[in-house]
Design a protein that fits this description.
By secondary structure, the chain is an alpha+beta fold. It folds into two domains: 63-289, Collagenase (Catalytic Domain) (3-Layer(aba) Sandwich); 306-402, Immunoglobulin-like, CATH 2.60.40.10. The protein has helices at residues 5-27, 40-45, 78-99, 128-132, 138-153, 200-206, 224-242, 281-289, and strands at residues 63-68, 119-123, 161-165, 172-176, 181-187, 212-214, 221-223, 306-312, 322-330, 335-344, 347-356, 362-370, 380-389, 394-402. The strands form four sheets. The protein has a five-stranded mixed beta sheet with strand order 2-1-3-5-4, with helices on both faces. The radius of gyration is 25 Å and the shape is globular. The termini are far apart.
């Protein structure tokens, strides 16, 4: 049958419209509830789904451990749920590195032979109280778990370990820079169905679902979206400490503050482009130079920067907001980024300085730190500095001091 030119034009137009709709459906991921089809409202949401994890073949990988004391039960589905959580974690790191123009393939993890993310199940020798101490002691918890984890999984060189622990509710991290490792510990209660879904689509739905659930490792009620966002976001935050990041209170959106409480906004196409949850430029720079993100480093260089001097240039004085610190450091291959955090001075964990030394062999000078509020006489004042070299070796230095002077008395009424 011969088609008239006008009919042919109509047919082509219909075909192009159909093709366009098909491409849009492939680009935007819709998350209908289980067993339901997507409604018009759900289509409009256009939620973003993190891509699957794959083995990147790196020598420096994150190790996952599920630590279960003898008086606790293994939660079903923990391996699959750990993989779901890490898809979110890896996606945020990758996107934030890209946002700050750092070229990296992102985080790598250990994988089983069948291609699934590997989670080491450590069925511990002792009951929970052995690891938590009585009363609770966080250092004892980390030390005792780490020792038994190493006995079970092997020494963690090149393997920072993220531990999901059934021993106690804690979110802590401790870098071990000389072996490119560390221990980050969170509660294993995160594996509850109410908090972590068994599919990535379900997990993103959790970020948007206000149904009331019990908090992780607690009995207090909280909306599921709040609890799922916070618990998944804490994983990103604690790993950040392993990668040299310190707390950063300058912007409420910062992951190294509490920006992760709004993690779900990063998976809503309407808000994700604004980066409502983010790493600061200084912290993205720190992560990018580590061996877990860097794509170019000299593996034979294992010497961290030498910090020859890190001290107050003059006493910190009451009523002032600035403190001067004398610093001198060297590195045989070149210095990289540094960050400094202040504890005390009217605000806990205030980020006060960052530099990128861009491969300088030696740096010496006076750095001016601006406290967020005037200093108070007699107040303990602590400065913590993390500095990398260009090959991902980390050094940390600490100043312990107190503010001098007398506090001005308020006028009597």
């Amino acid at each position: 049958m011969k088609v008239a030119p006008c009919s042919l034009l109509v047919a082509v137009s219909v075909l192009l419209i159909a093709l366009g709709i098909s491409l849009m459906a492939q680009r935007d991921t819709v998350l209908p509830s289980a067993g339901q089809t997507a409604s018009a409202g759900e289509v409009a949401e256009k939620l973003l789904i993190p891509p699957p994890l794959r083995d990147l073949g790196k020598d420096y990988k994150v190790r996952l451990v599920y630590f279960v004391p003898s008086d606790r039960e293994v939660k079903p589905g923990y391996q699959k749920k750990a993989g779901i959580l890490m898809r979110v974690v890896a996606d945020i790191y990758r996107r934030e590195m890209q946002a700050h123009s750092h070229k990296t393939r992102g985080l790598d993890f250990e994988f089983d032979k069948d291609g699934r993310i590997k989670v080491h199940l450590v069925q511990a020798k002792h009951p929970s109280v052995f690891y938590t101490g009585e009363p609770f002691n966080v250092d004892h918890l980390l030390n005792s778990q780490q020792q038994e984890i190493w006995e079970t999984t092997g020494y963690s060189r090149n393997r920072p370990t993220l531990v999901f622990s059934e021993a106690g509710a804690v979110a802590e991290a401790r870098p071990i820079p000389h072996i490119y490792s560390g221990l980050a510990c969170v509660s294993g209660d995160i594996f509850r169905d109410e908090i972590t879904a068994s599919t990535i689509e379900g997990q993103i739905r959790h970020f948007m679902d206000a149904t009331t659930v019990e908090k992780v490792a607690g009995t207090e009620k909280r909306p599921r979206n709040k609890e799922a966002q916070t618990s998944n976001g804490v994983l990103i935050h604690e790993l950040g400490h392993i990668f040299g990041m310190l707390h950063d209170t300058r912007d409420s959106r910062n992951i190294m503050m509490r920006g992760y409480d709004n993690l779900g906004q990063m998976f809503d196409a309407k808000t994700a482009g604004e980066r409502p949850v983010r790493f600061s430029a200084a912290h993205a720079r720190m992560a990018a130079v580590t061996r877990f993100f860097s794509e170019s480093f000299e593996k034979s260089d294992t010497k961290p920067p030498k910090v020859h001097e890190f001290k107050l240039a003059s006493p910190a004085k009451a009523g002032e907001k600035t403190v001067k610190i004398a610093i001198n450091m060297t590195d045989n291959k070149g210095l990289g980024p540094l960050v400094v955090m202040q504890r005390g001075g009217g605000q806990i964990d205030a980020f006060v300085k960052d530099l990128d030394l861009q491969g300088e062999i030696e740096y010496s000078g006076i750095l001016t730190m601006k406290a967020p509020r005037p200093l108070v006489a007699g107040q303990p004042l602590i400065y913590i500095m993390n500095v990398f070299d260009v090959n991902g070796n980390l050094s940390q230095s600490v100043i312990n001091s107190s503010v001098v002077g007398t506090q001005l008395k308020k006028d009597a009424p």
